[in-house]
Amino acid sequence: MKNLQGIAASNGIAIAKAYTLEVPDLSFDTIKIEDTETEINRLHDALDVSKQELEKIKEHARVSVGDEHAEIFSAHLLVLSDPELISPMEDKIKNEQVNAEVALDEVAQMFIKMFEDMDNEYMRERAADIKDVTERVMAHLLGVSFPNPALIDEEVIVIAEDLTPSDTAQLNKQFVKGFTTNIGGRTSHSAIMARSLEIPAVVGTRTVTNDIKDGDLIIVDGIEGKVFINPENDLLAEYQDKQADFAKQKELWAKLKDEPTVSKDGVAVELAANIGTPADVEGVLDNGGEAVGLYRTEFLYMGSNDFPTEDEQFNAYKSVLEQMGDKAVVVRTLDIGGDKELSYLDLPEEMNPFLGVRAIRLCLERKDIFRTQLRALLRASTYGNLKIMFPMIATLEEFREAKALLLEEKDNLVGEGVEVADGIEVGIMVEIPSTAVAARQFAKEVDFFSIGTNDLIQYTMAADRMNENVSYLYQPYHPAILALVNNVIEAAHAEGKWTGMCGEMAGDPIAIPILLGLGLDEFSMSATSILPARTQIKELSKEEMASYKDELLSMSTADEVEAFIREKTGQ
Ligand SMILES: C=C(OP(=O)(O)O)C(=O)O
Ligand SMILES: [Mg+2]
């Protein structure tokens, strides 16, 4: 047995066989072929099996993540049937008497290079499609298995270097019981997706893909961040018990599903959820969410092979608003850049993409993209309780410009006779330290703040949130972070505005008592954290926590803060 320590990314315990998502070794030899007819048939057999697989994957994606995300697989299927690609392969086998692997590789490489060199985003994307499809066909020619996350049909734990949001979206919760990766931290997007799928996960193990092979029996302990490979019977039994305890604990939490969130001394706060897609709303309601505090709309743009149209966006936003009824839905406008890329948007290479043209900076540069989203949001606004939030705001000018565009699009729509809700609140994410410091100036103009601690901590501590080697610096209770959070809450309250928090800190059991004491109004977290948080807040006195405020804010280290909270709350 071997065990690994990683970062606990999504609660719960999973026990199942390993399924590795690594692309296999696809190297091959060049062979002289006498019977070229049979070799061409072999090529066609590999193409056919690949097509059948892709049809199934496409159907699965259509059901689980929607038509627009499934379209990428239609593009892959087109490649597999394209005579301009297949005929030169056949000719090569016939005329040069080479094996199908050589023909596939040489022709594909030629097209990939040709498309990559074109000065056109759409064509460069075709290069990526050909590359993807060629790997699949090559694996079939070589008789090696190719990972198909969407086709998993038995209970497994997925093992990968990292999972992209589109990989994660393909995972079927019924069969994928957990996952573990080499890289990533608690706030990397694979971890965030794992929590919205309610799949236990451990990320940042550094070596899991080397330590585990397909079929090994794995325990993923998403509570403690541990992974056990081929555990002995005693340990297996212990974890089966822990799994059962966790299920019982969940049943207890579920009893609070329809209760308000009120502290022991009778103060109400709002417990909201972070979502990435309309499909996540079901989990929010099942877990007793009182609002959506952060709808990360970029997931609508990722995994699709072109910009979602105004109508596609309208439908997604309307669906979330309708499902939530009169409960608030804070929709964050597009936050692309950093670790979130769009295959169809050609962003210039940057030395520091997290400090580059991301989020609102990109939207103000590409106003066409931004206006489409604003129109879709405004059109959807009459279907529920919409609030709009801009990400990565660093200056008041950015906020003013973004808001002016929103108002302009509102006027345009009204001029076109489209109904738009009145009095939509417009707020900002506070995730850049300068904004947290200057919160007083911002509070005069915005309707609300939502503190994005995932980025706020990364930028304040100068520690990449994706990098497990500096994850020790991800310190939510660091004196600097507590001072910034307090400053934002005080600034908002001084202007009669509310402050939420939608970074992962909002669902952290050590942070919750501190934030309650500092006066945070809304806590937005992964849906699965809501009921444990409600249970905890019911046992806390806000007045008592507020009485510790000065002492907490003057502490020197995060450890000191944590020890103090543990002592006071018995954790
Ligand atoms: C909620 C946040 O945004 P994201 O995690 O999407 O960057 C944050 O930065 O805290
Ligand atoms: Mg952020």
From TrEMBL:
EC number(s) from the headed UniProt entry: 2.7.3.9
Cofactor(s) the record lists: Mg(2+)
The protein, known as: Phosphoenolpyruvate-protein phosphotransferase
General function of this protein: General (non sugar-specific) component of the phosphoenolpyruvate-dependent sugar phosphotransferase system (sugar PTS). This major carbohydrate active-transport system catalyzes the phosphorylation of incoming sugar substrates concomitantly with their translocation across the cell membrane. Enzyme I transfers the phosphoryl group from phosphoenolpyruvate (PEP) to the phosphoryl carrier protein (HPr).
Domain Phosphotransferase system enzyme I N-terminal: 5-126
Pfam families recorded: PEP-utilisers_N, PEP-utilizers, PEP-utilizers_C
Localization per record: Cytoplasm
Coiled coil (UniProt feature): 33-60
Principal subcellular localization: cytoplasm
Family: Belongs to the PEP-utilizing enzyme family.
Record-annotated PEP-utilising enzyme mobile domain positions: 153-225
Classification via NCBIfam families: PTS_I_fam (TIGR01417)
Reaction it catalyzes: L-histidyl-[protein] + phosphoenolpyruvate = N(pros)-phospho-L-histidyl-[protein] + pyruvate
Keywords, alphabetical: Coiled coil, Cytoplasm, Kinase, Magnesium, Metal-binding, Phosphotransferase system, Sugar transport, Transferase, Transport
Ranges for domain PEP-utilising enzyme C-terminal: 251-540
Name of the top EC class for this enzyme: transferase
PANTHER family: PHOSPHOENOLPYRUVATE-PROTEIN PHOSPHOTRANSFERASE
Species annotation: Amphibacillus indicireducens
